[in-house]
Amino acid sequence: MLTTGKAVVNTGIDAAALKPAECDVSRARDLPFETVTIDYEGREHLPDAETLADLARHKEVRLTTPVRAEGYDPLGDDSLSGEIPEGVRRVAVAGHPAYLTDDERRKAVAPRLGAVVERDPDTWVGTEGVERAALATGATQFELLSRSTDRDVRGLRAAGFDGEIAIYAPTVLTDDGDTVLDAVGAYIGRRGPVARALPEGAATDATATGRAREVLSAASKDYALVGTPGEVAERVDALKQAGADTVVGYPARGVEEFC
Fold first, then answer.
1. CB contact set of 45 (below 8 Å; sequence gap of 6+)
2. Computed over its alpha carbons, how large is the radius of gyration of the chain?
């Protein structure tokens, strides 16, 4: 059973992340959030400029752009950046290797992140795998939720970082274990510490048993926002108490869960 939009708002989540390979991103207009981020899943899934422009008239829209990818490279081919409609902001990331060519993977990330932020200081910068380079930009840090996020955010604040910090997390608003694993088990199973702890060849969905299920069930609360709306609200509040400014939830069971 899916939750209602009101329940999602009551969790304290501030924004939604949509994957264009999974849904029509124009559905963002139905979401009870002012801000929506759109993930990059390859050129074939890029929303067209008209769709983005329409969304930007109703929401704050942020488009994820991998700075090593041709078309978004500020030190090379930047042609796709020119097609981003006015009013659509960016999340600059190194880029998942699955969506990059061999040549693109070999490009240096740090100078490209710096170049993007220099052009547009309002850019958010994804920290996955490039934490130091991202921090050096001084821009909003866009971090994936992990078991160390609370500690890391507190550390940044204690060290004097006064920029904004946004946290991205797959979200499943239920405490049903099978539903949680079907929605985020594969994602959780790919995270480094979890992958190392899982038995070789173990299932990561609701069919997981024994040691694999124990590892995945425990890790689901480290790497995703899962549980009843009340439980998720407590987790979101803890992140903000640690120093996070914005929590971005990805509706792992489908966009309908946030509508």
1. 20, 21
2. 18
The pair of three-digit structure tokens given for residue 139, joined into one six-digit string: 């821009």
Taking 3-state DSSP, the helix, strand and coil percentages for the chain, each rounded to the nearest 5, stand at: 45, 15, 40
Model pTM greater than 0.85?
yes
Tens digit of pLDDT for each residue in 35-67? Answer: 999 999 999 999 999 999 999 999 999 999 999
CA torsion through residues 98, 99, 105, 110, sign: negative
SS3 call for 251:
strand
Q: Distances from the Cα of 226 to the Cαs of 8, 146, 175, 178, 223, in angstroms?
A: 12, 13, 7, 12, 9
Q: pLDDT tens digit string along 195-247?
A: 999 999 999 999 999 999 999 999 999 999 999 999 999 999 999 999 999 99
Is the CB of residue 41 less than 8 Å from the CB of residue 20?
yes
Task: Tell me the C-alpha distance between 170 and 188, whole Å.
Answer: 10
- Going along the chain from its start, the domains and CATH numbers come out as 5-173+227-258 (3.20.20.70), 176-223 (no CATH)
Report the first-to-last Cα separation within the chain, whole angstroms: 13
Query: What torsion do the CA atoms of 29, 45, 4, 16 make, to the nearest 10 degrees?
Result: -70
Strand, helix or coil for residue 66: strand
DSSP 145-159: --TTHHHHHHHHHHT
Q: How far apart are CA 204 and CA 64, in angstroms?
A: 27
